[in-house]
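Sample 3 of the quickstart, ligand ribulose-5-phosphate:
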Amino acid sequence: MSGELSPIDKAKFVAARKAAEYVQDGMTVGLGTGSTAAWLVRCLADKMQTEGLTFKGVPTSTRTAALANQLGLNVISLDEARWLDLTIDGADEFDKDLNLIKGGGGALLQEKIVATASDQMVVISDVSKRVDTLGNFPLPVEVIPFGWQTSKALLEELLVSMDVLGRKTTLRMNGDAPYVTDEGNHILDCHLNRIGNARQLALALNQVPGVVENGLFIDICDIVVMGHGDGKVETHDINAGTIGEDQIDFLDTDNLFTDLAD
Ligand code: 5RP
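Result:
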C-alpha cells in the first residue's frame, strides 16, 4: 500500500509518524488541519490501537474533528481543555527561525489559538515547505464578511508601507462563492512574494479593522519535523538548537496504510 503513495505523501506520512512519538499517555494534544495533520490523526489512532496510547485531542477544524471522531479518538473542545501539552500541525512555509505561514487549508484562526494555548508546537511537513524567506506562499488573512471589500482596501493600503515585494490580495473562493471558514469568515490571500519583516507585518495586519487573524505564526513553533520521500526525517528544535535525523521504515507501517489510508 505504501508503494502507491507519492513521494510527497510519503514525506508527510513519515513526518507525522515521527511527531506522533511526542504524544505521551494522558496528554492533551492539539490536532492540526490539512493533509499532513490528517496523517498524524491516523498515526495516533494506530498508536491507540497497537500500543494502548491514551490522550485527549483538540481539533483545529470541523474537518479534523470529523476524522478524529471517525477514528475513535477522545475528542474534546478547547474550552474543555483550556490548556494543552502539545499541538502538532502542518504548515505552508517555515523559515530557519521556525516562523510559519499557515492557513492554506483555511483553518488558521483555530490553529493559532490552539497552538498558542499549548506548551509546545510541533510542525510536520515535507521538504517543500522549507524556505529561506517567507512569502512565496500567499499569506492568508481572515476577515469578517461585513465590509470585507473595505478591509481588503485598507489591507492593500497598509501593504504599501510594509517590506514586501507584491501587494495583490485576492478573496479566496469556493467555486462561485467566497470561501467561508469554520467561524463564518472569509479569507484574503495576500500575494507578497517576499516578506522582509514577518514580525512587523503580523502585528500590523491585525490592526486593520475587519481582520480577525493572519497566517503568520511568529515565535509559536518549537520544533519542525520534516519528512523526505525515502523515509528520512529531520527534526529541527529551535530551543535546543539541534537538528536530529531518523529513518522511518515503511515496511513497519504497512498495516497503517492498509487500515487507515483514505
Ligand atoms: C491549514 C493549514 C495547513 O497546515 C497547511 O495548509 C498545510 O497543509 P498540508 O499539510 O495539506 O500541506 O495551515 O489551515
